[in-house]
UniProtKB/TrEMBL annotation, chains A, B:
Residues 9-140 form the Nudix hydrolase domain. InterPro entries: NUDIX_hydrolase-like_dom_sf (IPR015797), NUDIX_hydrolase_dom (IPR000086), WH-like_DNA-bd_sf (IPR036388), WH_DNA-bd_sf (IPR036390), WHD_NrtR (IPR054105). PROSITE patterns: NUDIX. Coiled coil: none annotated. This is NUDIX domain-containing protein.
Amino acid sequence: MTSYKNQKKLLAAVDCIIFGFYEQTLKVLLIQRGFKPEEGKWSLMGGFIQPTEGPDQAANRVLSSLTGLHGVYLEQLHTFGDPNRDPYERTLSTAYFALIDIQQYEKQITEAYHAEWFALNELPELIFDHEDMITMALEKLRYKAALHPILFELLPTKFTIPQLHGLYESLYNTSLDKRNFNRKVLSTNLLVKQNDKEKTSSKKGAYYYKLNKKSYKNNFQAFLTMIPVPVSFKTM
Amino acid sequence: MTSYKNQKKLLAAVDCIIFGFYEQTLKVLLIQRGFKPEEGKWSLMGGFIQPTEGPDQAANRVLSSLTGLHGVYLEQLHTFGDPNRDPYERTLSTAYFALIDIQQYEKQITEAYHAEWFALNELPELIFDHEDMITMALEKLRYKAALHPILFELLPTKFTIPQLHGLYESLYNTSLDKRNFNRKVLSTNLLVKQNDKEKTSSKKGAYYYKLNKKSYKNNFQAFLTMIPVPVSFKTM
DNA sequence: GCAAAAGTGTTCTCAATACACCCATGC
DNA sequence: GCATGGGTGTATTGAGAACACTTTTGC
């Protein structure tokens, strides 16, 4: 160990893996870079950490500048710092992943950034190590969502159980028994049944539910075991 | 988003939370700083990320320079970057936690660094945000160890089931039924019984076991549920 | 009246828990 | 011979998994 003097400084950035769910599919929001280097290529939304902010703040700033959203679910994932990860200049990047309700973000902003949603099996070519970041984010999301009731963050305030069911099936690329699934989610006491129904995706219509926010906050740590346990868990 | 020009660079460091287990207690290895600022105070072992290395390499370098160990369990925990976390100069620090077999590290090295083992409830005052780092590392260790067979990394090659039992009890600060515990660990098929016994801690002696390395590698992702589930899980 | 999705109950199996006694040995 | 820690078996309970039919309604 040595003193602070003579230590090389480096650029520090954040990158956001922004997940959204629509058309029964989990997607990520990518932008087409409007600046060099790699202009025109696809990448995660990112930005440099400014002198007055910490990484969390930087990630929040970046996220809300792209989506217009504040207070959404945002969690630090991992710091990537291979000396050659950015061929133009040594840059450390701390990746964050965000879960947003796709119905609430401001479309005009994302359009101004040339942002688009991509299904996870249809990703375009990405700059640097951004594909690794997405892979790791997806693994962590799978891991967490199997244990904690986190996926509600991807749904609108009012949602139906079949929607939630589809979300789990999409994330784990599996099929889950409807009856067992319903019983399990309802047994958490996290859901409050509404009186109205969502009628676009079926004739019968599915009841809307809302999150019981208080119970959600208290039970977030609670285990769920929504998913039959050994579903492709990678190391966290 | 902006180009690379005019972006402020900052110092980037790593800090290692090094866990060890002896005297039936989980401990962390701390050093007494031999340089300014904060000379003489206790801190985690750390170092700056060099131009030719990534954070993982830096953490490995720092860890082995203190312990003499290579190839031990080391995992990135979190990046701390509050603008004021280091009052002397803006520094980003990526924290790593390591699990070592306390019998294998080289004592002369740690002594040269004025390093000492501290039980987690007897920590001295630490510089900067190092206490937060330890708290977070402990939470993550608890979380992971409840789900994955990770604690073997803290034990010597040959260990007894009562030792393992004590380790779990120490980490979770709880008591676990001996019979159920034995049944569970043995049912994982991770352990290979040896013919000799450890005789210092009892008259009867306890059989030594070794890890089945192959099975360990294959089953590391496997869930364990060694711990009654809702044991103080904080968000990961 | 039929297609399409929503909603609901029961049985079985297995794993988690609780719990108490015998064993081996050093002193 | 007794104190100390090591080692083992059983009965009960609850949760997860498998599984099929009825309901509603737009067309």
